[in-house]
Amino acid sequence: MQNKTLNNEIEVNQMGVLLEPDDYTISGDLLKFTGKSLSKKQRILVYYRFKTEEEKKQFAKIQTAAFVQISGKMNGIRGPTNENEFDFRQYMAGKNVFNQLQAKQIKAFTKFQRNTIFSFFHSLRKKIIDYLDMMPQPLGWFIQVLLIGYQSENFQDSMDQINKLGLLYLFTLSGMHVYYLISIVRYVTRKFWVTKETADLILLFLLPIYGIIGGGSLGLLRSLSMSWLHIFSSRCGSWKMSGIETWSFVLLLNLLITPMAVFSLGAQLSYLLTLILMFSQEKDQFLIGAKMGGFTLPLVLWHVFTWNIWTIPLSILIGPFFDWIIFPVVVIGFIFVPFRPICNAILVLVQHFFAWGASVPGTIIFGKPPLIFIFIWLGSMLWLEVSKKKKMKIFYILISYLLAFCWIHFPFESEVTYFDIGQGDCSLIKTKFNRDVFLIDTGGRLSFNTQKWQVRNSRTNGETVVVNYLHSKGISRIDRLYLTHQDTDHVGNFPSISQNIKIKRLYLPAGMEKLASFQNRLRNSKIKPQVVTPVTDQTSEFPIQILHPFESGAGKNEDSMVLLYRMSGQHFLFTGDLDQVNELKVIQKYPTLTADVMKTGHHGSKTSSAPTFIEHLNPKLAIISAGRNNRYGHPNAETLATLKKNKVPFVITAQSGMIKLKADRRKKLKIETFDQTDIKEKKEKNEGSTDH
């Protein structure tokens, strides 16, 4: 079972897992760590929810290697279920971690003597992290990031701002930091009259240690390995390895040990930029910066979909500032206690500068280019290196970027997309050429009686799923956001989405705008109160028709908005969590109402989808949005029986992931699930079954 992904879920009882003290993170009531299973002989990802605040405090005190006994359910790490969602499974595979364990109980964890050099330095790293947490901030956070490769949860906002400016490479341990380390060691040894040969031997000993102290990121290990091989071959080998030889050897080693790691943006940029610098002959910092930007931009667009126009000029300007101000201040603040207040004050100003820079407009939502363009752009940059008529080649490259931009931003098809948002609802409507972009509900995470110590600091799936998808399609605004009713699993994500996507208009059932819960969310969003419009079925809207509520209410399930959208002659119905009684009232008021595609109310609960309602609508397809293994048992067997009785095929997001419906030139619907399975094939294969 070593390094094999589990296909089925299995129960484990008192599994022994070895935990290094710097490998776990705690956010609210959630414990997450990667440890080595002693019985399965593999590294696994473990999640555990603390039951009490005291249990959380006790676990946070671990500073040495620990043996942990865990009971729970173990399965393969799940991949993405929405298009262009971050592939966490692939990311963990890059660390040779393929399975996860949802712990129900940690019966006991026992500190024990594990006298290995690795455990010693892992413990040392944990103690340094805890020590830096007690220092003045943000000095301690900067030291954690720049010297030991650890990012505090409290430093996340600053790192997000740095990332938005495209300067994250400066704050990721890599070749530049290894260069500083080697320079410092050689400077100190010279002052103590140590020979260069002895200094190199010291470095051969120190560099592997720093690989552990620095957190062992791929970029750091690549740089340390290249430097170690270069020094070793110079002093101890029969021949001195060149830069390209060490680069090639380390890349080959990487492919043999962790082959999936090369698919990450960090690995690709690390190896590519190193190669560019080795072959670059330019002395001008601007030309070097422009060349590195030209090579990295295709990869950044493929992975992130956005680009900041200030990245290249800031890289040129900030580079010397980082070398002469930020990094020395961090080192001085770490070593010399009396200078810490002034060092901290300087870094506060640096932090404010990054916050200001991130607020300056300049981020282009480009979208995810077709893969062929990535190869064209990288090939063109290589072509540019050997070409003499560079101006014309640059013009052709710019034209190709413009073509890719237009291809992404002006699609020829309209589409209706149902996100796999977990136990919640979120649907997207976008018309041809992205002329109109409508979002119906946003999803949101339900929390039950959450105390302060249980609150987690994490991104919402509104950001990781919805915003990510919109950005990948080159979309930077939502023309109309419809919130069907007040429940968190329908509206909880709209504040976080509004922080990343401009929302022009917001519609909600009349009366809901008065609720304190909605007003709190509105204050936490970037949506201005004047763009909020309460509606009933008397509100005239086009192309989406509002069929319910009939009057002002309190935003409850029975007040849910019912929306009818027409695309290429097809009718799409959205009913929120409307109950059966009010479903019947809708068809009584609108007796000619039919729907080709309906999203079943309340996630397939038996409180919705009345048999008379389904029979009257006579849909050709039903979409059910429900979470995997949800506590409510959605979709309910009674609802599925009603659909089957009326011969309505259905697709469930919990089983099929994101569901997309597009209209082709003949105005026929093309229906795809995330795994690209056509619904017609499923219907033929599973007619009458629940596994669609």
TrEMBL record:
Membrane topology category: Multi-pass membrane protein
Bilayer-crossing regions: 167-189, 201-221, 247-280, 292-310, 316-339, 346-365, 371-387, 394-412
Example of a GO biological process term: establishment of competence for transformation
Keyword Cell membrane belongs to the record: yes
SMART domains from the UniProt entry: Lactamase_B
CDD domains: ComA-like_MBL-fold (cd07731)
Protein localization: Cell membrane
Cellular component terms per the entry's GO annotation: plasma membrane
Top-rank lineage group of the source organism: Bacteria
InterPro entries: ComA-like_MBL, ComEC_N, Competence_ComEC/Rec2, Competence_DNA_uptake, DUF4131, Metallo-B-lactamas, RibonucZ/Hydroxyglut_hydro
Major localisation: membrane
Keyword terms: Cell membrane, Membrane, Transmembrane, Transmembrane helix
Metallo-beta-lactamase domain location: 423-628
Protein name stated in the entry: Competence protein ComEC
Organism of provenance: Ligilactobacillus pobuzihii
UniProt lineage: Bacteria, Bacillati, Bacillota, Bacilli, Lactobacillales
